[in-house]
């Protein structure tokens, strides 16, 4: 399990870290902006994704990430 977050102020990062600690204390948490993030997710089956809303929707960066990672993975998203 891995946690991915997009956080401008650090609040979403904090929430993802707290949730990961409850679900799996060995899970790691990385920012969505990390270079080569797609390669880092190849061996992960479950992705926890946290992001802020923009105009009542997910930011374009998050939507693009979801489209790229839409096959063969279980995703848990929260806002």
Would you kindly provide a written description of the structure presented here, covering whatever features stand out?
Strand 3 (46-50), helix 3 and strand 4 form a beta-alpha-beta unit. It is built from three helices and four strands, in the order βαβαβαβ. It has helices at 11-23, 37-40, 60-68; strands at 2-5, 28-31, 46-50, 74-78. The chain has 79 residues and is of the alpha/beta class. It has a four-stranded parallel sheet with strand order 2-1-3-4, with helices on one face. It starts with a strand and ends with a strand.
SSE string: EHEHEHE
Low-confidence stretches: none
What's the shape?
globular
Distance between the termini: 18 Å
Beta-strand segment tally: 4
Instruction: Supply the number of helical segments.
Output: 3
Provide the helix percentage.
25-40%
Q: Kindly report the average pLDDT value.
A: 86
Strand order across the largest sheet: 2-1-3-4
- Proportion of beta-strand residues: 15-25%
- Radius of gyration from the alpha-carbon trace, in angstroms: 12 Å
Helix- and strand-based class? alpha/beta
**Biggest sheet statistics:** 4 strands, parallel
